[in-house]
Amino acid sequence: MGLSTAGGTTRTSPAGIDTLRVGLVCPYSWDVPGGVQQHIGDLAETLIAMGHEVSVLAPVGDTDHEPPPYLVPAGRPVPVPYNGSVARIGFGPRSASRVRRWIAEGRFDVLHIHEPAAPSVSLLSCWAADGPIVATFHTSNPRSRAMTAGSTALRSALEKINARVAVSEAARRTLVEHLGGDAVLIPNGVSVRRFAHAEPLPGWPGEGGSIGFLGRLDEPRKGLGVLLEAFSRLARGRPGLRLLVAGPGRADLSGVPDDLRERVVLLGRLDEADKVRAYHSADVFCAPNLGGESFGIVLTEAMSAGAAIVASDIPAFGAVLDGGRAGELFRAGDPDHLADRAAALLDDPRRRDRLSRAARDAVRAYDWESVAADIAHVYETVLGRERSGGVRTGGGRWASALLRRGERP
Amino acid sequence: MAVVAGALLVLVLLGFYLSWRATRLDRLHHRVETAWAALDAALLRRAAAVLDLAASGGPDPASARTLAEVAGRASRAGEGERELVESALSVALRDALDGRPVEGVGEDTRARREEVLRAARGVHLARVFHNDAVSDTRRARRSRLVRLLRLAGTAALPDYFEMDDRAPHPSPGRSGTTSR
Fold it and tell me: What pLDDT sits at residue A387?
């Protein structure tokens, strides 16, 4: 299993902090890429680096590639329509018995369940566990059916949670509307290391200067239209200037004059490695969003890559960019203002260097190390000083008695 | 005979159901108690950290005096005035630390200041968890069944802890926490 050290009372790591035994529960299949899985993997690795002992329970479908040492498989997932798409989750008697065994044998100080309302190992462990429970809510779907906690079974599971965490203001709102109560806000971390170094894509940034954009192309609030307008203005006086556009969806280039269209390079959807390279491929990185962003993960990724950024002055971006110190801000929706700001940056490599350094510096607050430290603070708050008991199997005995037929091979 | 057996079965099931409801309620009250203990500890830790910072003379003599005075009141405050005094401490902290650069202070003062910021964040965390537990418990106790059968027993209806817990923000971007 994922944990080897013997349990006991308070242990202290070489770094001097109290070592906690943490059980993380992931509802979705580990071998399928997704935001929640990524979040849990990053969190687990950072907590381990901080000196804690971590075990992750998740359904695993494809066992071909090497699983990380902290992963404990909860059985094969089944595809289920959930939240408007198909989720690969683990449910049923077999999963329930694995969950109980994992909790009993793990002797965790704290159980940290992700998406506790997801009908998977998350909900199962909520039912099965007694003791300090932390839960993180990722969903920000206002009509999430799984979160409509009309059912007593769901409510009885969720009311055992000692500390609720939401990854964004939108997720928090969803949770408060459906369940009442409140949650603390701890944003997704950025793995600064993953974005820090990469080769530019072949042929970029090029001699004549370049501007980069990443995001959905057909969603108006991502603001690509504003950037295209600003680019059309800039490109007239700069014969070599090119625009790098990466992301899924169909772009509407009708606002760009015909003779400039070939300088708008559409790369389509990029895989993870190429995405990192794209952040290193332009002289100036632009985030022209019109609003509706709660955090701006694209911006923090670009900052990790040390990009010189020009972004719209919506509140979320202003906060992340430290009020303009870690990147230029322009009036949201104003292509002229954007063109001015971008031109100033394109003409001044030293200023770009300064912004790049300021961005790398400011993004450290969003690095996984800071975020995981905040989450560890949540654990400490929940555990209190005496730290008695830890997590046991207990509650939901009837539900699991009914399911126990599947226990032990 | 069948009627008696049926009635017995219903009674047994009802008994199980009621005991399950009572267990849930008991667990909720326990959750509020632990959350309150955590909030109490977090508030005391913050007051102690502020007193420590003030005793070392930081951030400047004038704010140090104010901080020491308010933090002293906070650690002595009785139940009725605690929400007000702790809010006053939050305000005093923001007045003293907001926008102050972390650079240019000694290593010692910096460590004390970090501890104050961490403790202030801890107050926010503990308060949200406490009020969340209170809200779940109050909702459960509104249920007609719970009120009719007095399933909550003699446990007092828990109260929210209302205070201003916004943390101070010295030199933005370098605070070392992700609080907003």
Answer: 62
Helix segments in B56-106, DSSP class H: 61-76, 82-97
The C-alpha atoms of residue A102 and residue A108 are separated, in whole angstroms, by 10
Q: How many domains does chain B have?
A: 1
What does the pLDDT read at residue B33? 92
Instruction: Tell me what the mean pLDDT of segment A201-230 comes to.
Output: 86
Beta bridge partner(s), residue A164:
A135
Closest residue in B to A163 (Cα) is: B129
CATH number assigned to the domain covering A192-366: 3.40.50.2000
Q: Give yes or no for a cis peptide into A205 (omega within 30° of 0).
A: yes
Name the 3-class secondary structure at A292: coil
Read off the pLDDT band of B148 (50, 70, 90). confident
Both tokens of A266, joined, read 């559409």
Give the pLDDT confidence score for residue B105 in this predicted structure: 66
One-letter amino acid for residue A316 of the chain: A
Contact map slice: B 17-46 vs A, CB within 8 A: 20, 24, 27-28, 31, 34-35, 37-38, 41-42
What is the domain extent for residue B145? 61-180
Domain boundaries, chain A: 11-189+368-406, 192-366
Beta-carbon separation of B121 and A374 below 8 A: yes
What residues of chain A, 128 to 157, have a C-beta less than 8 Å from chain B?
A: 156
Q: In the predicted model, is pLDDT for residue A97 greater than 50?
A: yes
- The interface predicted TM-score of the complex, written ipTM, equals 0.89
Tell me the two tokens of residue A61: 């479908």
Q: Give the distance from residue A250's alpha carbon to the nearest chain B alpha carbon, in angstroms.
A: 35
